[in-house]
Amino acid sequence: EEDVARSDVLFLGDYCDRGPDTKGVLDWLVDFKFRREKSAAGRTIFLAGNHDWAMAGFLGCLPVDVLIDLEGTTPAHFTDGFWPHDAPGGMHYMGRRWAANNSYECTTTMQSYGVTWTGEEPGYQELRDRFVEAVPASHQCFLSELAWAADLETTWSPGRVVAVHAGLCTKGDFLAELEALKARDLTAPSLYEHPKRRDRISAFVGRDKVISSPPGLVDHALLISGHHGFTHLDDNRIILDTSGGYVSQDRPLEALILPERTRVPHC
After folding, report:
1. Distance CA 149, CA 164 (A)
2. Which listed residue, of 3, 159, 167, 223, carries a Cα 20 to 30 Å from 77's Cα?
3. pLDDT tens digits along 50-65
4. Angle between helices 137-144 and 50-59 (to 10 degrees)
């Protein structure tokens, strides 16, 4: 415990939707954060995953410092697959998509807070009000404070760790992307998969384009992510997501101790 208290602890995101008890997970994380702030010498960093960011978007507690017109993030040619109703202050497309119950597992998450929804009952338009009321203020505050990226100096080679939930784009200006992530700035064009759209943020939802480390980071920083549903470790890149959100004996939830690269499984 003393070693952990002295160490930096970094969480890679996707605390929501992964299993039947999102509420219990956030209860534990909020308590862990409180205890670390009171007694730990090391830093504690909670990165936003796409599931967390999307749930926060639906709740209206986005972890954002520089906003854009949220209603403008839903592409005009999209007609279904998202929650279509009005929300005070607008809602980012990722939040609307979260509540559509297709790619995410929002119904299970809502049920963990005592909100039952099948997607068919008449209260669909009032769903958000019921969910906002059910989610404790401490959970909404936790989601609103999530970091988009971590950029840390280390005493071991290569001397720098960069952590982003999915990764950084291997093409384009990754330095501009990283600075925008650190600033939690939705206005930055470098964040988006499509140059004329604002619906998909590569660092949260990207796949093939973010799996490798950008050439400019190679040998200068270790890039760490989760998100991808597999684990990969090399000198410049770590992806730690063996469970892919579905924990079993063969696919455990894991921690990784650095710089030793000791894997600590739990299932």
Report:
1. 5
2. 167
3. 999 999 999 999 999 9
4. 120
